[in-house]
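Sequence in, structure out.
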Amino acid sequence: MTLFDRDGHLTGQALAALQAGGLSEESRLEVAEHLASCDRCVAAYSALLSPVVLLTPREPVAPRVMETLRRRERRLRLRQWGTMAVAACLAIVFWVSGVFTGSFWSRTEGEDTPSLARQTAAFVNQVSQKTGDLMNRFDLREVFQNEKE
């Protein structure tokens, strides 16, 4: 039995013998090596293995997949930039209020330490709550956008 035709492709007999397991070890290795580099023979062998014709989708799938990927990337970038913007705003607020310079922490006359600690805790809680509300707003928008699709 000849494995290859004049063009260098596998014969129908060789493909059928490969499917049935009737090739010697050396022939099987030679056929496998050829299938690794020849698309035409791979297509013929695949057709022999699965005679079912694959259906094509009614509309192209690639544009929808690419649009979904673009939307996800935009959302990711929005979150990254949003987080950086919030961090920058907080840094500016802390800098202007004197947290980094130490003037915020210095006591004024008649002010006791516990009240300063309470003010600081209240300020931190307020900033934390506003940041959480902002992030929740972005997350809810994402949920509503996904429901509309």
